[in-house]
Every structure is written in C-alpha cells, then in structure tokens.
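Changelog excerpt

This revision adds worked examples to the README so contributors can see how folded entries look when concatenated. The first example is reproduced verbatim below.
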Amino acid sequence: MAGPVPPYALFVLTEAIDVDYLNEVLTRAYKGNYEAGWDLYVATDAYSDAPKKLENQYPEGTKAPMKYGESRSLVIWETLESCAGWLHNAPNEVALNHDYFTAVNQFSQADDTVLICRVVPDQDNSTLTVEYFPEKTDDATTQTAVSIGLKDKALVELEWALFNNTGNLTAFQTIRAPVWVASPEIRGTTTILWSCIITLIACIYTALHLNVPANTGKMSMFAEKLKWVFIGLIAPEVVLYLASSQFLDARRLSRELTLLWQKKKGAEALEMQTVTMGDFSEPEEDPCFDIKYGFFVAMGGLEVPIKDIQNYTSRLAMRGTLESGSLRLSVNGVLQLARLGYFIPIPSSSIDDKSKADTFQKFLIMTQVIWMATQCIVRKAYGLPVSLLEIHTMVHVVCAVVMFVFWIKKPKDVTDPMVVESSEFRNFIALMVQEQFHFRRSEEFIFYPRGKIGEVTFEQPAFVWVHQTDLARREHLTDDEHNVMSIEWVRPKGAQWTLKAGEVLPSGLGIVARGAIWQVETFQRRVLPSWFDENAYASTYDIPESVWITEWVSTEPVPPSADMNAQDIVRWKRVVDAIESIEGRLQHPELFHHDYQQIRYPDQHFHDAFTRSAGNFQYTGDSQVDPDQILAFIFSSPILLILLLVLPGVYGGIHFLVSNSRFPSDIEKLLWKIASFDIILTMPVFFAVTYIGSAISRMFFEYESLGESSWAMFYKFPGHLMLFGYILARSFLVVESFISLRAVPIGTYWTPSWLQMLPHI
C-alpha cells in the first residue's frame, strides 16, 4: 500500500533533553494515540534494536513513552547528517522510513519544537543532504504526517521548495514548479466535512422533485425546498417513502386511465360499425396517459376553478385552497372523472415545457456520488478507517439515488399548474367539493322531486326531522293546528339567503333536522307569583327563597335553517344535477346522507368515490389534515405500510452495524446503538399500538368520536412519545456523525493520491 512506512525514527541531538521531556513531547505531539502505522521509534545505535519487516509487533521500547531504568539507553547523536547517515544505511529488513525522520535538539525544550527532517541523497547516492524546519510540538502531528506521506518526487520537491522559501514572494513568483505535481495523500478535517456536506445537500436538493407549489413566490418556493432538504438530512426515508408512494400513485393512474380509455374506444368502435364509409372520419390520436402524466397529476398539475361554487375570501390566498377559488385534482379525482367518461388529456410536450429538469446538473451530482462511493469502497479495500460521517453520508446518498430513480419521470420544478375548465363535468366537480369540504352540513339537506327545469307545479309534504341513524323515522312540518304543511318553492334573491324548514330551492334542495330525537321539550324554571311586586326589593337576589315557585315549561323544537350565499346555491344546484345524471330524476324525497347514498349506489359505490376520504382534491389547508384518516389510508395500502416499516428499519439497521466503529467516548457509542434501535422499532410498535387501540375503540366506543374519546387519548399518547423519541434519535445520529470527527484514527486522514485526482467537489 502506498503511503508512509511505519514507524519513523526520533533522534535526540543533545544531552540537555531528558526522558521526561521526551515523553512530554511524544504525548503532546501525538495526542497520546499510538496507532499501528504511526508509532514512534526512538533510535539506538544498534540496527538489531530497530523493528523488522513482516513482524506483527514492534520490539519492546519502540513505543513511547519510555521510562528511566530500561535496559536500552538513548543514543545522543551529534548532527542531523549523522542521523541521516544512520537511517540511510540501515539494512533493508529494518522497517523504518528511510526518507523522513524527526529530531529534537538543544533548542527544542526552550522553543517547544521538533525538527521535521527529510533525507535527500545525490544522484550517485554518495552524499546526503538533510532538509529540515522546526515545528511546534502541538502541530507536529500534522506536519510530520504530511512530510512522511509525500511519495511523489515532484510533490516532495514542491513541498520543500515552499517550506524553504516561506514568506519569500519573489521565490514564489520565479521558481519554476515541476511539470506535474500529484495530489497529496493527506486530507484535512475540513476536506472530509465539506465533501460530505456538499454531497449530502447537493444530492438531496437535486433529487427532490417537489409538487406544484401553492405559493409561487421565489422566496416561498426556496424556503419550501430548504424545508424538504432539511427533512431529507434528518430523515431521508421519509422523503423516500413519499417518492415511492407518489410513484405508485402515478403508475396506478397511468394504468387505470389507459384501461378506461381502451374500454371507451372499444365501445365507440362498436357504435361506428353502423356508420357508412362516407360518414367515417379518421379517429383522433389516443392521448398519452403515461407515468409522466401520472406524476403531473399527482404533483398537483391540474387545477379547476371553483369561484362560482365556493365563496373565496382572498386573492392573496395560496393556490389550491378554498380561499383562493381554485382546487387541484388528485389522482383519485382524475380517476373518478374518467370512470364517468370525462378524460383530461395533456400533450407530453406541454408537460415538458413546464418542467425545468437540468441534465447537466444531474450529471455533476452523479459524478460526486460516484466519487464518494468509490472513496468509501477504496478505503475499505485499503484497510483504512472510514469516518462515521462518511458512512452516514453514503446512507443518505443511496436514499437520494433511489429517490431519484422513483422520480426520474416526474417533471421537476413545475411552478404553474394547468387550469382545466369544462362545462361537461362541472356538476361532478361541485359534488366533489360538497362531499370533501362541506361534509359536516351535507347530511342536513334533503332533495325533493322537481318537475321540468324551472317548473315546480306539484305539492309535496315538508319534512322537518329525520332520525340520524334510522332513516325510516321522520317527522313532517306542521302548522299551529298540527296540520302537515306542504313545501314552499322559493327563489333566493340577493347575495345571502336563509333556507328554512319547508322551503325548497328550484334545484329541489331543502333542509331537515338530524338529531336523535324530535319532540316537545319540557324543563323546570323558577318564577315569581303573579301577585308578587318585584319592585319591592332592590334586586331579585334579595327576594326570599320562600316566594319563588317552580313550574314546568314545554317548548316546541326549533325548526332548522341554513345560511347560504349565491355560490352555495349554485353548488347545490350542480350537486343535484350530478346525482340525477347518475340515477335519473328523483321520484320521492331523498336525504343527502352517507348511509342512504351507499344504499342508493350499491354497485357503483359512487358515494365512496366522492366522499372526503376519497381525497378527490389535493388540499394544503392545515384545517383539513386528519391524522386518523391518514392512518386509515396507510393501513388500507399494504405496499405503503410495508415501506413505512421497512425503510426506517433498513436505515437504523445500517447505522447499528457500524456501531463497532471507534467513537470519541463509550457513552456516545451506547447512545448510537440506542438511537439505531429506536429507529428500527418505533414504526412497528407505533403502528401496532395504533391498530390495536383503534380496533378496541371501534369495538367498545362505537358511538363515540375516536378523536375525542378518553380511550383514544390513552392509546395515542404513547404513540406521540414514540414519535418524539424517534425525532430525537434521528437528530442524534446526524449530530454525532459530525462531532465524531473530533476523535478519529489518524488513518482517516490518509488517502491514495490517485483517488484525489478523480473529479469531485
């Protein structure tokens, strides 16, 4: 193996330096770490005492510090030249570096220095010249290592020319350097740090293919990308999970859209068999629903305006929110429209125009990745130590490469979605909006049969209440004489309208109460007798208790009402039209309620296709995030669940495997193992606790809200603690990877010169 030949000799040139000071020099200069390959040999006059080649252990006395009373005494040499001669004439079997040595002289103790020396023989090997310079003891480790590591002749000449002309600017500008100078075989701490930091950030930054941003400001987009870079640095498997799940979504959309399109074309081909050749026209080219199209949809590339059916509040709101007046179709939303016969084809060239992929940038990053991987492999092959930071970096690099493979077909840095406006499926867009964003009020509405558009000529009894679970239990709206009232067809006027029980819009929309009971309510209250003069007392609090009487009071339930704006009315009109386009016109009053809708569409499952959980729109509003629904979605997808369990396990497992490396302290090594185990076990335990807890909730708390029940709080609390510990473990691994560089084997800093010649940052 190229590099320094261990050990190298230390010569003492004066009797003024005692063994105690020599021990102090050795301890401070070499930090007390006497690693194999860098041990010091304190030379005596006998070659037989020098370490021999092919020996597994160095002879006694070759490791500092030395003590008084040892059988071997130090030889006091006269000059550096005599030291060089002794070293130069040593037999070949002596395992000493014959080109470099260090020495201490009469000035060393006063100046706290050692001499870094190089033996330079002439061409016929008859005369030796010694080049040297003093170096502070605390810095001797690095400088001596540099001197010993220089094996390339041109580099040696350049190094010593620079040392011998330190501060001589004229020499720096006039002395010619060799034609070719090899890279040094020594790297510094900053070299390791910057190469790892740049590789980490550059790989993650380049591999990230973010969704279409909601806020297209430059600073906002930059901050969003930095946020995901930080997540990639702390938890790369989280970003890898998102990349893999998005790839699965894009592939699913591509496959299902292609099948639906083929079915549609097949049906059209059967109809065209009855058309004469004269009427026949060339069929349109089939749209390309490839995985690129799937990614474009999954990243929020299709936007539909909803200003006419949703009261938007701000022109400055983030795009893709209700407040902005536009929403972005999800993979499920595009699939639902396709199942209804509405496809949204986009030319591949249009997607490419919006993508800002930089091939040259990717080439540079891949070059850096290859160099980093090659360096780690070569160091292992040479038997050199690899720092924890480099291992940690390689784990992240592998994650980034896999992430890039998943996203290789995904458009990059798309900042502006395509706006899709079509009157053909606007009714179904309204149905999706109603179910996903207004589901809490949806079940309070009822649909009444209507005549032709604009005609409402027949009378129907008005409903005021329907049981929340038993739909057969209903109450009609009655007058003061308890006669059943008929519905009243109304046409809203103005920007705001209050829809009352018994009133029906031209669309057939009415409102009913949905409580568990609907009956006369009776309660007690305290009143004063009619004969009592309450003005006789300054305050009612002063009236004696004996005066007050208790009476029972009965009240009728208050009929329901709903405040609506113009956009709400338009949206409900389209919702009714969408439902009737599926099943035909209503024949009797029907509730807009999930239980009924599931009965209404038992085969098509149209209600499930449009509910909030279907997620037909991508939404960035925090208020719409439901952890329970996210967990339910994960449990319903075996592939995604497996990825969530496997990826952290692999990440933590790799870090645990390197826990036998050298750590600055035993406690740091122990914490590294604990953190690795925590990452491996957190996700399986978390999902097990969540699954068992939610199952118990469904069994014993059927009518309680899962998010509010005490049991849910009980089993979710340890889950939150586990996730907090998971974050701490991830953070520790990152921090420890960096701070571990403060105490690494010296071989960490030696590197083959040819490896430095490979292109890298």
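The second example, added in the same revision:
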Amino acid sequence: MTARTLCGVAAAARTLATLALTTCGSNSTAPTTPANPNPVVAARVVLAGGPIDIAARSNGTAFVTLNAANTVGVVDLGNATVTGSIAVGQVPTFVVFDGAGTTAYVSNQYSDNVGVIDVGQAMQVSTISVHGDPIPMQVTADGAALFVTTNANRLYKVSLESKTVTDSLALPATSHHLLLNGNGTRLYVATRDGGSVLEVDPSDLAVLRTFTLGGRTQAMVFSPDLATLYVANEAKPLIQSINLTSGAVSDSVPLAGGANGLALSRDGTLLYASIIQGGEIQVVKRASKAVVATVVTGGVPRAVLFDAPRNQVAVANESGWVDVLR
C-alpha cells in the first residue's frame, strides 16, 4: 500500500537526498553503503493475521498492521523477530509514527476511527472518530495535524491537540495512499479508482492541481531532489512519474504486474515495487528506468519500507509474514 519511510511522513520531510537521512526518534544518521541492486530474502518473520502496512523507528522497531487479527504486530527489524502485539480496533490497515517516534497512529478501518498508540506503553490509549472507514494517513513533521482519507470519498484534516476533525475535502474516489512533501506545503492524494493524483494545499485543503494518470493510482514516493513524484499503478501496470515543475506525466517503468507498494532506497538510486498478483518485488534503477532485479516472495506483498539505518527493505505480506530483503 503506502510508500513507506521510517516515520510515516515523506522521507523528504526529514532530508534531501544529498544529506544523510535522520530517522524518527533519533538524531543518528544512516550509513553511506549503497543499496544492493540485487537483493534476496534474507529473513522471513511469520505474522498471522494478514500484514498490510509497516512503519518503523530508527532503532529497528517496526509496527505491522494485522487486519484480520485486530492487532498491530511489533517486529525487531535488526534481528527479524516478533517482540510484541498491540490490541487495536477492527481491521487495522495503515500505521504511521509521529516525528519523535513516541506516538503511532493506526487506521482502524471497520471501527471508523484512528487509534492513538503510546509507543512506550505499547498500547492504544485513545481514538479519533472519522466519518467512514479510514485508510491511509500522514502526519505533519511538527506533529500538529494528521491527514486521513476514508471510503466516504473524503480527505480529513485532524488536529492532534484536540483530536478532532477540523476540515475535509470531497474526493473523486476512495484514496488508499497519501504523501506529504518535505516542508509540509503540499499533500498528494492518489485516488486509486479515480486514476489520478491530487495536489492539495494542507493549510486549507484546496486542490491546486489534478494529475490524470489513468488506471489505479496507488503508493507514491518523491525523487531525491523532490522534483518528481513516482506513482505505482496497479492497473496499467507501471511506475509512472509526474514532473512537479511542469506537471507532465510519463509512463516511466513497465512492470511485470500491477504495483501496490513503492519505496525508494536511502541513496536514491533504486525503487522497489510490490507486485501483488505476482508475489514479487521488482527493483528498478531510477536513473535508467529499468527493472534490474525481481525478488520472488510469494503470497500477496503489500507495503514496502526502506529501513535506512540497516540499509534493507521490509515488505508486509498479506499472506502472513514480513520479508527482509538485503
């Protein structure tokens, strides 16, 4: 599902590609080792309950939504082990950390709320009600606001101080992926069945531009210079690119099947796309726009996370596990 970073907000909110990545909950920076263009499945962590999404802190603690178990699994990405479980609402789907890594938010889809998790206590401590079934979320870098969409075809802005909805925007279709830009001045909304990406001003939820891509637009990531937005398309099947200066859309990379999740390596050279029908991850060299490796995972790979401190990829697989690729 979502293009994942270590904090649940866009990687650009932390750094430009020319700087070392600083991850949530830490002031440490990522290693400079280049990403492996031909990774393999180095470890598999079994997690019953249908893993959908994954987010992680800099210390390697990852939260994985288990939508059939109504829990969030806790995984140590450093040694690929399950370390805990957190009871949440019905059908948890997406999870994000705040910038400090001390609070996580989970979209409890069939409970019609966003669960607030105290990371230190490993416990859902409160909820935020929304209209409809919530799916993707993004949190501003300052922790003041959360954006979430629901199957009511609306985008909601939530004050995290009052835990109430302060604004909303009607969407052309249900969105499954959101992405904030680096300085929090633009929010991108993939409309999935609407076949488009909306560029929204987060301050007032005004739609600034609509990019028409066709197909089913899914996960998104920025290029290192923030000038290009890459979009996984489940129906084309492609990784498409949007030039954010000119607004031009191009069909950048043909894939073996429909892409759902998308991630960018820490060094900015590689894209990783989850092919849900094919049970594989395709690795794309960003400069040449060519697929350079295909990693067979089996099952139904969903969200893809680049774990920068360990220079590895983590993939939530709905069939009951998390794969670690190195």
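Reviewer comment on example two: Residues 1-23, 25-31 have pLDDT under 50 and may be disordered. The radius of gyration is 17 Å.
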